[in-house]
Amino acid sequence: MKHLKQQWRSLAILLILCLFLKTCVPNASKPNILLIMADDLGIGDVGCYGNDTIRTPNIDHLAKEGVRLTQHIAAAPVCTPSRAAFLTGRYPIRSGMDSSIKQRIVFWNGASGGLPPNETTFARILQQQGYTTALIGKWHLGVNCESRNDHCHHPLNHGFSYFYGMPFSLVNECQGRENPELSQSLQDTYWLHTQIIALAVLTLLIGKLTNLFSVKWKTIACFATGGFLFFISWFSSYGFTKYWNCILMRNHDITEQPMRLEKTTFNLLKETVSFIERSKHEPFLLLVSFLHVHTPLITTEKFRGRSSHGLYGDNVEEMDWLVGKLLEAIDKKGLKNSTFVYFASDHGGFLEAQEGNVQRGGWNGIYKGGKAMGGWEGGIRVPGIVRWPGVLPADTVIDEPTSLMDIYPTVVHLAGGTVPQDRVIDGHNLMPLLRGTVQHSEHEFMFHYCGVYLHAVRWHQKDSGALWKAHYTTPVFQPEGAEACYKSGICHCFGEDVTHHDPPLLFDLSRDPSEANPLSPDTEPLFDAVISRIERAVWDHHGTLSPVPQQLSAYNIVWKPWLQPCCGTFPFCWCDEEGDRT
């Protein structure tokens, strides 16, 4: 009898302990997941990656407590396709989120292109696994498909239970700056066409009034009406970018149109801390997608003039402060040991972002190229830091090829889910590599696209330690001798803006990470064998691609008034619920 009582007492203690673990340590089995994505941050802008002039103590401390990845690669060198790949674990060409035209991003909130509803994001899988999911910050993957309120591309339609932020992206127009960011060349073309039409109408009118030639008034009226409608159609989109694109949303509701930029940083931080507070008793997925450090570099007064790198450096240091505030919120709730934290940038720094002689974009360290350049390392090699105390080793550096797409299978694994079996997933679960149970990355080949055009391929030859990279196409830098596309403002992917290489330019990144000295059959005995192996890999890769609708086609990225999110009666779109709330 006494023995039976002892057994019951032991069972009761065990039951109480289990209940304690379930209520007080809710993520003992499923960790919270905090993903932090910077915008346009160069790998050379961060202290733990070699910068000794911009202060990033919080990011550096995160790396000290976790694992730092030195070959962390974005699947695309611009925002929209890179973020699509990050969320789906797939090269953007598989989902139609890459472009065959010069414009490679979603250009308007009122466009019809975006992340297709049939794509399965990691947020959707974690939501099915019982996670509370939220996205706070930048989305830039579309809003509507066919009507103003269908929200087919919206974060809430892709597995996020809560959204607060910009459905688009920060651009210079949000601040009313003189140098517009949304395809100045395209606007110039439209304006030229408008002037030609106006000149034609004026010529007809003078000819009619002076009897130089016979023309009907109806013809002149048709030309004038057509020209006016053409001008209104393009100017109503580009001329009112601040109202159409620079908006804040909470779930499906617009809270600011246009945004009050001086309050945006505070609002986003407040929303993030609030979400952590109300979700601390259940496993959560929180994707914090910073507006920093994209132009126009919105920086609060507290950080202006603090760095030695002007407004850009100020903006980086403010972003680092935000990272510290997020980690502080996690720590204060006792969630540090039960939270998987990841920090990265969506692609490399923007070299061409300049105002006169002042640099407004990032620095990519020793790596050649930058944002929008599909093959060069500077456009795709980004910071990558992971922390999970007690599970992952601290102060560890991994010099193996990894991808932003790897986060997809990694967080799905941590949540106890399974990746979709009906499609190709290009990412790999990072946990074995992060924990040190394996020594090499699962990535043997990685394919580097510029739009839909394959510009370069890397081959991780694990047995030899070589890291080969073959460039089939590279951008033409201008002016001659420059290291970026300063004349055009951004590098393009095809036509006269690129150079094709046959045979490809070949580098061994293990010996030449700056891609300064291309190899040749004379300098590299394995040249032909390496190129042959890479070409077989390209052939195999192409065999895994299936035709899909192109989300970033010319039609899908053009502004459509009937799709424009509006918090009033279109076109009178204006509201400030955040100000009212304050």
TrEMBL record:
Needed cofactors: Ca(2+)
Signal peptide positions (record): 1-26
All residue ranges annotated as the Sulfatase N-terminal domain in the record: 31-416
Pfam families reported in the protein's UniProt record: Sulfatase, Sulfatase_C
Transmembrane feature ranges: 190-207, 219-240
Molecular-function GO term, any one: metal ion binding
GO cellular component terms attached to this protein's record: endoplasmic reticulum; intracellular organelle lumen
Alphabetical keyword list: Calcium, Hydrolase, Membrane, Metal-binding, Signal, Transmembrane, Transmembrane helix
SUPFAM superfamilies with a match to the protein in the record: Alkaline phosphatase-like
InterPro entries (UniProt xref): Alkaline_phosphatase_core_sf, Sulfatase, Sulfatase_CS, Sulfatase_N
Family per similarity comment: Belongs to the sulfatase family.
Protein known as: Arylsulfatase D-like
Gene: LOC109306118
